[in-house]
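Minutes, methods subgroup
Present: GH (chair), OT, SY

1. OT presented the first of two proteins processed in the latest run. Sequence and structure tokens recorded below as shown on screen.
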Amino acid sequence: MKPTLFVLAAGMGSRYGGLKQLDGLGPHGETIMDYSIYDAIKSGFGKVVFVIRKDFEEDFRSKILSKYINHIPTEVVFQSVNDLPEGFTCPPERVKPWGTNHALLMGRTVINEPFAIINSDDYYGRNSFEVMARELSSLPEGSKGQYSMVGFNVGNTMSESGTVSRGVCETKDGYLTSVVERTKIGYNDAHDIVFTDDGDEQHLDVDTPVSMNFWGFTPDYFKHSEDYFVRFLKENIDKPKAEFFIPSLVSELVENGTAKVKVLKTSSKWFGVTYAEDRPAVVAKFAQLHAEGVYPEKMF
């Protein structure tokens, strides 16, 4: 069975100032998602599931999904702050989504095969999809706890326009030993890569592996997510900005021996639009990729 690609497209786009999932950045109005879907099809994925907010479903179906008809099967699921386990009620002051792992949970009713998960607003490159599709397709049927992630060097994932969030990884023998979500990684005055931890400035080497939220999971991950989310809510439901991140659960499953996460190396270079100021450089990069023949004039 071919693996599924699960696309996180429910973000608010708050830093960018708009719904960047729908922003045409390619020379013919292509979105970043178009490139991801094209690369996924070429690499052997068999279905795409999108998690979005219900309030932009109409725009999403008309501007995005309509393009993929006859190219690959698609499904849509919805993330809502009110979608909580039995016994929990969303506090009225909560507006922020519950985080990436909550968005991932929305796919539990439609995904029954190994799947990869990506951000809608990140460009990962063809080779990233190839190595992930190869890994997921090689898993024996019924595999559990055999996860993977595409590892990028942090120096290849920075924005000149402001700080970024990354899952900072430690590895041993090609497998993940820990991943910690760092929400404000940026350049200091000396142009070194740093983040702040408990008020102290910490440095990161440019080749430190980071997660760009390109994970590979088997379906058992959904049950682990449900269990962890209940615990998360018991501790955090009254914290308006607390988020349930994928790296938090992955780290726990690795540390207690429930899962192993293979870190997949890629020759691809990541780029994306975190801030509006990033847009011109991304537009130029896509134009160059088309000019070099990496992508055809008409992808869909």
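2. SY then presented the second protein from the same run.
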Amino acid sequence: MKSYLARPNEIERKWYIVDAEGKTLGRMATQIATVLRGKHKPEFTPHVDTGDFVVVVNAEKIVLTGKKLDQKFYTYHTGYAGGLRQIPYRKMIAEQPEKIIMSAVKGMLPKTRLGRKMLTKLKVFAGPTHKHEAQTPEELSV
């Protein structure tokens, strides 16, 4: 018996919507990464992008447990000497809540060209409205 390998032109993609209000960041990000990767489907193939699209709304109302709002930092480097920058998550939620969810999910996807392609299927919005109503996304229980 041969193993089934999905072909890129045979994959049917669905759209899902996730309401992030009151959800824990890490627990929500793992389930979003699973859907983006396609591991929830029986035809999952590791070297083919079999995942679905995910729309996240209310990103500004995400919850971090414990003291992470003040103790956890978003760190990046500008590329110049002494250019290490650290921004506390409390400030990130106020200014760029979409970036928090994107970086959490990005860390859970493969670090390859395929992983970067999967991340483009994630659409994050700070408020309750989004511009993908035409795709009629289904509610994803997180």
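Chair's summary of item 2: The domain at 13-64+96-139 is CATH 3.90.1180.10 (Ribosomal Protein L13p; Chain: A;).
Next meeting: continue with the remaining queue.
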